[in-house]
Amino acid sequence: MAEYGFPELYVLDSTDPSQAKTFERQVDLAKTIFIVSSKSGSTLEPNIFKQYFFERVKEAVRAQLPGSHFLAITDPCSKMQQIAERDGFRSIFFGLPSIGGRYSALSNFGLVPAALMGVDLSKFLRLTQEMVYSCQSVPIEQNPGVVLGNILGVLARAGRDKVTLITSPGIWDLGAWLEQLLAESTGKEGKGLIPVDRERLGPPEVYGDDRLFVYMRLDSAPDLSQDVALEALARARQPVVRIGLADSYHLGQEFFRWEIATAVAGSIMGINPFNQPDVEASKVATRKLTAEYEETGTLPPETPLLEDSGIRLFSDEANATALTSAAGRDQSLVGYLKAHLKRLTAGDYLAILAYIEMNRAHEDQLQALRHVVRDKKQVATCLGFGPRFLHSTGQAYKGGPNTGVFLQITCDDAIDLPVPGQKYTFGVVKAAQARGDFQVLTERHRAALRVHLSADVQAGLATLRKAIGQALE
To answer: 55 to each of 10, 70, 361, 422, how far by Cα in Å?
Structure first.
């Protein structure tokens, strides 16, 4: 909306130093307002972003007050409130402690950025209220949230737990929000909805019987090819839910509908949709590693399982033993990847966990990689950039059904950035998050393999993509 005089909104949710630096190059720091959003203020990422960019803004504005370039959205009496008050932030907007983070889209956590972007909040909330009324003042069989929740929960119990999200191009990013809501809410106690976002639609024969397709259609700007593909899936007797939005101002209705639906689905599945025990496990592992770096100046040493074609493979002892045995005489990159991908069977899913810069070139490579696996193995595929997925699908990967095969991708950093006041850097934090993530996966007995690339990430991804193609032949 920048052309109407409103600022552009950038979302920075990665500790990858290249991604942070790319963002910094795109903006004029002296003309930028930073929103530091954290319910508790104890989460690592917002704190290191604040430390780094506060110092960078201080350099850019010199005699002016750097705090005037910062807003905080946080719960009352949080650590973030203390930081914001100490550093003279322009404003502090409070959330409601009773609302969990992933359910906060219609609170200040979602509405403050929306207002800054120029969204007409009166219109947005007026339309949203229509869905609120429909979810509390109608017979249960007509309640939009309850109906959708019943579909999600009942089909999950019947084995269709891969909720495949199809969104019109104009609301493309809605899938990322739904990923967190569904996965973090339901992925626990060996159960869960596994959201599948941004997987390209394929013909019916590439899908198994573990899918539910949900089509979020922007009626004012539909993609007709999506309509055709979903009709073909429906004719093939795949379950398809179609939800139409008149325009983007109706997104608030969907936030509310899906929050109700997620709670209902959780009840049907027999889990508590309001906690996230395995997210905290990854945080604990990461904090332990960063604390060790602060004390010793280094992360614990690692020994690769294999070095081949400029790529190093790592795993825990149990996975390494199983993969080495399955690879047999083919102790090569292709051999180990073949052994790992052979673990995929009907009803499983592949999750690619990429701790690399999130940009178009890298995403294109990874999308091509996921689709060749889907088409060859007829399994659902998930793709997430770390560490952002740790607070969303990361919960389901660790606490949900043990049907995932995980391929974590890390890299040497071509550049790194300091974290003011700390020994560790952005790159060290990212490495600690990746290791902590992998550690918890293996503690939960997940099938996991880590692929480590050199600093030339694009070349490494090309090598990996070729090797996976050969492994699937």
So the answer is: 19, 12, 30, 13
Answer positive or negative: Cα dihedral of 94, 100, 101, 107: negative
Check the CA dihedral 409-415-417-422 and report its sign. positive
The SS3 of residue 197 is strand
3-class DSSP state of 352: strand
Q: What is the architecture, at CATH level 2, of domain 121-269?
A: 3-Layer(aba) Sandwich (3.40)
CATH for 277-471 is 3.40.50.10490
Residue 143 CA to residue 132 CA, distance in Å, equals 10
**DSSP 3-state of 340:** helix
d(CA 411, CA 353): 12
Q: Out of 3.40.50.10490, 3.30.930.10, 3.40.50.20, 3.50.50.60, select the CATH number for domain 2-117.
A: 3.40.50.10490
pTM over 0.90: yes
Three-class SS of residue 275? coil
> 149, 265 in Cβ contact below 8 A?
yes
Of the candidates 115, 117, 106, 238, the residue with the CA atom closest to the CA atom of residue 177: 106
CB 88 within 8 A of CB 68: yes
Write the pLDDT tens digit of every residue in 15-60: 999 999 999 999 999 999 999 999 988 888 899 999 999 999 999 9
